[in-house]
# Entry
Amino acid sequence: MIPIIDARPLFGPAGPSRNATDAAILSAATDSGFMILDHLPSPVPVERLLRLFDLPAETTRRLWRQKFEPANANVYRGWFPLQDGRPTYKEGLDSGPDIAHGSARIQLGDPLTEATPSPPEATLPGWRADMGRYYTAMEVLGLNLLRSIARGLKLPEETFTPAFAGGISTLRLLHYPIRPAHSFIGVEAEKIWVKHQGREVDLVAAPHIDSGFITLLRQHGVSGLQALGRTGDWIDVPPRPDSLVINFGKLLERWTGGRIKATMHRVVGAGRGAGQARHSVPFFFEPAVDALIAPIPALGGNFELFLYGDLVWDAMMKFVEFEGLDHLRPQKGQKGAQLNV
# Structure
């Protein structure tokens, strides 16, 4: 079972209630690597963010990344379209910190700090402001989670947080439509079909471990998310109203000397041409591009120092949305840094 934790004490004063929440969060983080935070109403109804997918194709095409539309300048932020013949079938948009904090967070010359393309205000009134409010709320929650984990590990409360000042967190909007038959052509069957509850279903998102620190995921009513249990079975992570699914990435596992667990997870559909379209809104809580990540002696970590921007770029190049773009951002840190994630 995925633990369900009342998040309200995280935002309250020190005391027995917050201590109990800290203990529950640490237990989940060091055991299953997954948890559900309950009693977290969205600062913005998620439907307002997902209005983006109601726009016509000619409007969203203007937001496409350069890989898919060479005339566009945006490389890292922006829209990725549906692609046939791939193991997963999704479209969506990645937004960066400027969506909440404005142009001061844009640094020219580095795709990791480029501007987020958005539809014109007249086309989708209030959408960018809604995105900004949601982004800011997730940053606040992310910092509170880091403080809770530090307290649980008996570390100073602010052990992790300085690296996240000026962070480059990503707010992603995702749409998984019902997959048409032609989109499966060219995909090896073993990469897309699995058995679930006695039926053959498609993998909406292939099994993977997030590469970063903390992922805060709002599901939107349609089930399918599963986490890999310690016994090797897949555990359903059902959508719950006013809740977020929290999971931890490889970098936080490394940073905590293996204490925090990064857990394999996947998303399954209902089978060929069946089920419902699925939407989700993950927020990948990330440090600053030039944050230097070093081992914490009290936790016994053993890895070479690295700049976060170097590692995340290396990790992203392994995804289909970024294949072939390695050369667009040279590493800035030590050449000997271990960047395998």
Remarks:
- Helices lie at 16-30, 46-49, 57-60, 98-101, 127-152, 250-255, 308-316.
- The radius of gyration is 20 Å.
